[in-house]
Amino acid sequence: MSRLLIALLALACAAAIWGAFRLDAPVRAAVVAAQGKSWKKTSEGRFMAAVRVYGDWPPLMLGCLVALAIARGLNSRRWARVIAAAMIASTLAGIVANASRLTTGRTRPKEKIEQGFYGPWHEGKLLIGQSGFNSFPSGHTATAFGLAAVVLYACPLAGVAAVAGAALVAWSSIVMGAHHPSDVTVSILLSFVVGWFVWRWARGPGGETLERWLRFPREG
Known about the structure:
Blueprint: H1 3-35, H2 43-54, H3 57-73, H4 77-104, E1 121-122, E2 125-126, H5 139-154, H6 156-175, H7 181-202, H8 205-213
Antiparallel strand pairs: 1-2
């Protein structure tokens, strides 16, 4: 990858993050205006709540384990490698995002307090572990897109569906008031970077390591 391309990608990412922060307040205002007080009891509200539940790391990993077992049963080395790499990328992206959001002290959109970044300590109180101050970046989005990124790199056609599912997880985080657009944007960019490195490793020497873990017989 050339330095010029890296510079252009970095510039595009910076612009996307800047734009997302600019959209935080108007998007939240539009969401609140569109939902009304009883939105969570509607079919849409219940669906989005379900997306948040089943789009989290444990259900995603359970689904991947099932898919991995199928790929192993069909003796598909390529797809077993892709799924295993997606699980690793999802986990790593989630770890980075969750470790970061514990210390930023950013308020969630639904909190009835002044929005902002308060850091790990504010007004004599430790904010680490306080859910209302752990908004940035989005852990759900990071795990979903970490998985989807690897699938997209490995197989663009299947990756489109994976990215669509991850985007739904990200959108549910916004409409449920759990995260700002900037929270999910940063997580998406983070996940694509993590996914790229993991897939680069998995399609190279790391693939042999994955196949040994999955107990595939050696070729040749």
